[in-house]
Amino acid sequence: MQSVGGGGGGGGGGGSAPKPRALFGGALSAAVPLGATDISELREIPDNQEVFAHPHTDQSLIVELLEYQAQVADEDAARYHFEDLAGGNEALEPGAFEVSGVAALPRADLSLAECGCAWTLTGTQRVSKFNEEARNTVAVHLGLLRLPQFSTDVLVTFNDPQSISPDSSSASALETHREPWTPQDFQRLLRTLTLHDPGLFG
Prior knowledge:
This protein is mainly beta.
C-alpha cells in the first residue's frame, strides 16, 4: 500500500504555485495542484499509480509507472500508450478517440534528469463512467517520460472532461466549475517530476 507524503493543503488562494508533493512513498515528487484529492485515501488504487482528483470538477491527474515498451519507437510511444488507455476506457471503436498532436519535450525542460526522452500528446476520448450508457467527451493530455535504464515508461495523464452527457453521473460536477485545472497544471506536474529513489523501479 503506498503512502503519499505531504497533505494536499486546502486550495490555497492567490494562485500560488504548488510545492512538490511526495509520490510513491517519496521515491518521486512533483508539483501537484493545491487542494487535489488523493484518491488512494478514498479507495484502493494499483501500486503503480498515483491518482489525484479535482475537488469540484471531474478532472483527474494520474502518474503511472508502466513497463518500458522496447519494441515501440520513441516517437510512437505516446500514441501507443494513448491507444492502450482508450482500450481500458472502452473507447476503441471508430470515432471514439482522436489524437490531435504529438510533440517531443526538450529534456532541458524536465526535472527528471534520468529521462531518456519525453513526449506529450493531446487527444480526445469518448468514455463512459461506471459502465453507464452515456458517453462523455474527455480531452486527454498525456506526458510520457521514457526510462529504458529502469525498464520503465512514466505516464502522466490529465483527463479534462469537455462535454458531459446529461445522463451521466458526472453531470452535477460541471455545475460547480470553480477554478478548474488547466493544461499548465499538467505541464507543471510533468516538468517538476523528480526521482529521489531509483529503488522504486526494483
